[in-house]
Amino acid sequence: MVEQYLFVLPMVSLLLFGAMTPGPSFVLVAQTAMSKSRIEAVSIALGLGLGATIFAFLASSGLITLFKVVPELYMTFKVLGGLYLCYLGAKMWRTSKDSLSANTATEPGRPKPLKAMSLGLITQLSNPKTAIVFSSVFAALLPADVPEHTTWILAFSVFLLNFSWYAFVATLLSSAKAQRGYLRFKSYINKGAGLLMGSIGSKFVMDGFRP
């Protein structure tokens, strides 16, 4: 009985390692945690977890096969996702010029968890690398005759691991000490985060136009 679920452990382990690799999602959570509030950063983590769950369902339905059959679809996905990440990068770069005092850092105004969750969801779904990682892992390790309820268990595991990791990052970097450090180096942090996000997005766009 237990043996039929053993494939879940290596799958979620690989996907967790993928989530822990610094990328657009990590940059977004870290920058939000330090510059805004813990609740907004955790809300972004929730959105990232939901996005990962959607990718889990799509991957179990053969997303990588669809990309191979219709390569133009993957190209479009990469370009649009890359453009969105470039937009986020530009937005982060612009905020480096905004003035920020200690009071506004510790009291950033009324949190907007729903907006933050939506931002996390869109950021996750706009990342073509995540789509390929999920599709590749599912194609390699998911048995062909897996029961439907097992797919739900796997999707829930993916959500739990992604949300837990990014919520941990959000909690760690939204501490008073981290926010004071952010205040001191805000311009450099936001410019660095924006440059990294824009670079990743630009790479996706260029890769999307390559034959």
UniProtKB/TrEMBL annotation:
Matches recorded under PANTHER family: ARGININE EXPORTER PROTEIN ARGO, THREONINE EFFLUX PROTEIN
Name by which UniProt lists this protein: Threonine transporter
Protein's cellular compartments: Cell membrane
InterPro entries named in the record: LeuE-type
UniProt key word Membrane: yes
UniProt keyword annotation of Lyase present: no
GO cellular component, one term: plasma membrane
Transmembrane segment boundaries: 6-29, 41-67, 73-90, 119-141, 153-176
Molecular function terms from GO: amino acid transmembrane transporter activity
Keywords: Cell membrane, Membrane, Transmembrane, Transmembrane helix
